[in-house]
Amino acid sequence: MSMCKRTLIIAGLLLPVLYLMQCRKPAPASPEVWYQTLRSDIQQQADRAADTTHVQYLADSTFSHRVYIHGKRVFREEWYGKAGDLQGRSLFTPDGRFEWRCEICPDSSVGFEGILFKNKFYGPCTWWYCTGQMRQQGYRYANREIGIWRRWDEAGVLVDSIDRGGRHLLDSLGSISVF
């Protein structure tokens, strides 16, 4: 057999294998990687100057809600208590489909955070006591609690750990993307 024929046979055998390898879907990102990447992207996009800021006042003239707009799109919302203390913040992607929500304790520490897609929670959701100790953590998919949910007391002792099922839904988080 000539060298040319051998080369053609080998190429004919390898090309389908190479093609199939390229068609394989990449392994899905873990829910934590998906969450951290998306959260970082949302925070970077929301870190800009507003074209317009709307403030809603309570009856006693202390503000309670601020909306920041850039290019006719809301990219940030903040909620304040009567004393003017920040109680919560939402940051949005430019298309408004994703929202990172964070609730704030009176001492300015984080009390809750999670990501919404089309107004439903997806991925890790975490609550903390205002002391900084984790209170509860679990995963949501379209607001549904899935996977392992854990709760701790204020001393940091695990109170319970419940498997809500539906862990297979975690693999599809990577298909929900900003772009």
Summarize the entry for a quick read.
It contains 2 helices and 10 strands; from the N terminus they run ααββββββββββ. By secondary structure, the chain is of the alpha+beta class. The protein has a single domain, classed as Outer Surface Protein A, domain 3.
| Number of E-type strands | 10
Task: Give the overall silhouette.
Answer: flat
Architecture, CATH level 2? Alpha-Beta Complex
Q: How many domains would you count in the coordinates?
A: 1
Q: How are strands sequenced across the largest beta sheet? A: 1-2-3-4-5-6-7-8-9-10
Straight-line distance between termini = 52 Å
Model regions low in confidence, pLDDT < 50 over at least 5 residues: 10-25
CATH top-level class:
Alpha Beta
Radius of gyration from CA coordinates: 24 Å
What would the CATH topology be?
Answer: Outer Surface Protein A, domain 3
Strand portion: 35-45%
Q: Average pLDDT value?
A: 84
Q: State the major sheet.
A: 10 strands, antiparallel
Total helical elements: 2
| SSE class | alpha+beta
Return the string of H and E elements.
Answer: HHEEEEEEEEEE
